[in-house]
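Page 47, continued from p. 46.
Same chain as before, 104 aa.
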Amino acid sequence: MHHDQSGIENGVGGSENFPEEMMASHLPPRSEYHRKTKKTRRAKQRQKKRSRENYPFITIFAYIFLLLPIIIGAYFFFKELNNDPVPVDEDPNFDRVEIDGNAE
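Result:
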């Protein structure tokens, strides 16, 4: 199928000529584009840093809640490591029972 170029030359074009209408001359130079993106990236980094500086208590609480389970787990772990078993003789919940083997 033959594509008619006369519509573009005359300045008349429909939606079917969309890729041809979008020319490179409408785009900014590469250096200008990268300069703008660098500025916006720096501005976002500064804004993120400011928001962290504005709310130091939230950051502190976040670290506390992250470290709290680790500290509690380590406490119980080391408590079990150092736990000596209680002999039955010293435990008040048990009674000593002696069985005589000659009682028949």
